[in-house]
Design a protein that fits this description.
By secondary structure, this protein is an alpha/beta fold. The protein has 3 helices and 3 strands. Helix content is 37%, strand content 14%. It is elongated, with a radius of gyration of 31 Å. It starts with a helix and ends with a strand.
């Protein structure tokens, strides 16, 4: 009995929709369709920084974006690089906020004090 009532209710709704569509005037039946693709704005191309000729006497920042459980890895990388390149100053810094947040204070510090940067984005 429940199936019959459900089918009857659907049938009545369908008939009501068809009746409404048939009784509308042609100008009321017009449908506007929008293109969801859109037009993205052009991406400005910025060239990479020129390669350093040597690491001797340079300061290189190793930036941790605070991906879970990676800070110790960057400290180990600093130790290995310090042994391999003893004439280079290696600085490990943690970025404030998440990967997507702009840490302007850190970027200004790097621009003022470093000649290069390595940024770790997780694994």
């Amino acid at each position: 009995m429940k199936k019959s009532i459900g089918c009857l209710a659907i049938g009545i709704c369908l008939l009501a929709c068809l009746f409404t569509a048939c009784t509308q005037k042609p100008e009321q039946q017009m449908t506007t369709v929008l293109n969801p693709v859109g037009s993205p704005s052009p991406t400005p191309l910025i060239p990479m920084a020129p390669r350093l000729d040597t690491l001797d006497g340079k300061t290189i920042y190793i930036v941790d974006v605070m991906y879970p459980l990676t800070h110790q890895l960057f400290e180990e990388i600093q130790k290995v690089f310090s042994e391999k390149y003893p004439k280079t100053k290696w600085v490990v810094k943690s970025k404030a906020g998440t990967y997507f947040d702009n840490d302007q204070k850190l970027w200004e510090e790097i621009k003022a004090n470093a000649q290069g940067m390595i940024i770790g984005v997780g694994h």
